[in-house]
Design goal:
alpha+beta; Jelly Rolls; Arc Repressor Mutant, subunit A; 2 domains; 4-stranded antiparallel β-sheet
């Protein structure tokens, strides 16, 4: 890793949880791949070869139907790992991963990672906690799709981007609106309508920036939605 990449890696949960000695052994000679926006990083149905750690940028997981239709399952950002279960289980990827911004991703060979899981207690505990968070996120998403309207799903999304305890907030959307719409299970047109319906509640959006006058006012409109930033992949 170049020095700038190493600095980014030291901010990740993986590095913090296992410590510098284990992290060095785990990532020795591992490549960092620079990827432009809109590039497929892994492909649904392919066998997993590596464990992926995002050093910078954002990557969406996209599921594809037999008719070629796609939907965004979720999006991961700096410091996070994605499609790790496939590498651990030695199984094909269930989804395609695609960059939504320019990204740099650290690649750890799957076999090396599996061996480390057996030997390093801290790494095993970290993966258990990570998979538990992702499971709770999945259940939250299912609840949102089954129980919440498009407006309520948008409110939940915005609340997850707000700082904890904020009275008002200025949110920079982490993805393009079409990606957000797919992640929330709606069309871009439905997302635009949902934003318009939030104007009377003090929510103004322009491009990728959203101004929220009263965060608490939005929070009382929905139940069971986490409202502090950083819990997007720790929901529940």
């Amino acid at each position: 890793m170049r020095p700038a990449d190493r600095e980014l890696f030291m901010r990740t949960e993986l590095y913090r949880r296992v410590g510098p000695e284990v992290a060095e052994r785990l990532t020795r000679d591992c490549p960092v791949q620079a990827v432009q926006r809109g590039v497929e990083f892994t492909r649904q149905g392919e066998m997993a070869q590596d464990v992926h750690v995002i050093l910078s940028g954002r990557i969406s997981l996209v599921a594809e139907g037999n008719d070629g239709e796609e939907t965004v399952i979720t999006t991961f950002g700096p410091g996070e790992m994605f499609v790790t279960p496939a590498a651990i289980l030695e199984l094909p990827y269930l989804v395609t991963s695609r960059t939504t911004t320019r990204s740099r991703v650290l690649l750890i060979p799957s076999e090396r990672f599996r061996h480390a899981l057996q030997a390093e207690h801290a790494l095993a505990l970290m993966i258990v906690a990570q998979l538990a968070r992702h499971w709770r996120l999945l259940l939250t998403q299912i609840q949102d799709l089954k129980l919440h309207s498009a407006r309520e799903r948008l409110i939940g999304y915005l609340l997850r981007e707000c700082p904890a305890g904020a009275g008002s907030a200025s949110v920079r959307l982490p993805n393009k609106r079409n990606v957000i719409a797919a992640e929330l299970g709606m069309t871009p047109e439905s997302l635009s309508r949902a934003f318009r319906r939030l104007r009377p509640l003090g929510v103004e959006s322009r491009g990728g920036k959203v101004e929220i006058a009263d965060v608490a006012r939005l929070a009382v409109l929905i139940r069971g939605t986490q409202s502090s930033k950083g819990q997007g992949h720790e929901a529940g």
